[in-house]
Amino acid sequence: MKKNLPALICLTIGILLVASHFLHFGKGSLSLSIKKADYIMPSAYKVYANPETLSGEYYLFKMLIKNDGKSPLHDVKVSYRIPNYIDWIDLEKFPKIYPGQNVVARCYPQFKDDIVNKMTQSQEKVEIKITYNGDQSINEEYSFKVLGRNQFAYTDLPVEEIASYPDLFRNSQLLGCLVTPQDPIIKYYTQQMQEKVMKGEAASVSNKSEDAVKFLLGVYESTYLSHMVYSGTEGIPQKLGDINSMVQSIRLPREVATGNTGLCIELSLMYASILKSAGLHPVIFMVPGHAYPGILVNGEYYAIEATGIGGEGLGGRLSPKDALQAGMKELKECLQNMQAGDARYSVIDIAELEAKGVVPMELKDDDFLRKKVDEIALRFSAGRKYDPNQKDKQNPKDGNNSEDDGTTNTYTGAVTFNYPAGWGRYDHPMRQKPHLISVIGPKDGSIEIDVVSITGSQNSNQAIEYIKQQLQTSGMRMQYKLVNSNNGYDYYRGTTTTTNNVNFKWIGVFRTSENGHDGVFIGSTRFSQTEDLLNSILATVR
FRET label pair with 311: which of 28, 69, 224, 349, CA 20 to 30 Å apart? Predict the structure, then answer.
């Protein structure tokens, strides 16, 4: 018996060692690290679904799975679901993960096409389940936002990762999802435009530069004849999880065409959709605070100032010829700045983005919108052919004119206040900044009064943050602080530093309006010498 004892001991140890694998003595230990998207934009649902698009950088979540134990993990399976959107689906399967080994599971969610019908923002939930070794599992969940169809967030980077101007607008590459040449409404609008304005001309057939430019002019003339109006839309800074981004409510090309109004980026997206539908190569030029459409033909760019259609109070309208001239002038400046390495200037090439997988959302036909197109098409036919030699009526308030001969003038609009007679007043001075309602000041430019109206802001701080971000896109900096709140007004003091490092000190006031917040900034480059005058103007705000 004693002779067999060593053998029995060795056998027992061997059995225990084998059993330890099954009894998890020294078992594998699974740890997780999840990097998640804080929001999803329905307009880009096809991008999120495709791991090949833009090198797979747009995902719902990316999970690092590590085996921290001393034995392998077997049959590791990752599943997920998004209640109300996607039922449980197996994401990844790993037959074996060895001790110390890392594996990555990426989720590219397959949302249904009807997600583009979602009009409002909502908080949703991702549920994740990891099973392994047959009977073990881990459950995780987190919240994220699904934006409304028309909401566009310009960055998906946390504040600490934003190191340059392009980082603030990283999602601009997703604007291609809003170019919808296959939308039945856009195709119908393009057809009506070609028949009634261009008389059936199709520039893409000949591929001649002059024909392509003629088509570009035809799109502008169509918007001109229909009396399309340049207008603003909601755009406010918003916190989306760990992300602080400018979120803009962007009307779709079909909504611009049938609503007969649009902001610069919206007009550019509509142009790009029409041009692509007609077989041309559309591009959108992005510059600080503005966007305008164009084409690439035979290796050369052409651009047009789509906002030249103007509207009531916007200083008159540009003829198609003048709009093209303005666009080409802006194009020259844009290309020069791009060549100089200024990252604030860029070109969005729709065909190039499409080749990378940035494809538009799918939209269904709509009888009501077709009838709207028919109504607008009547204006194509009834409207006069534009005579480039005939000048449009200009805004009578344009220029350094005074409104009366008294000692003071009264401004009545978003806010009401008095200011010295003889000062010039400019209404809607910058089409690319629709929030800037009026600018008032003396001819020497030493003092400036800015009247602003911010749509969609929840409080005055949010409104002023919007203005701060708008200034940043133009290379300017703004600092401010709230100094008082009284009788429904919030009073601020601050400094805006121009690109030439000139400090413009100001005082300002905001109040709640029906659609957001209205306010007035009163400032000067010689603040100490003019402070009493500025305060006297501020005291008349009502």
Answer: 349
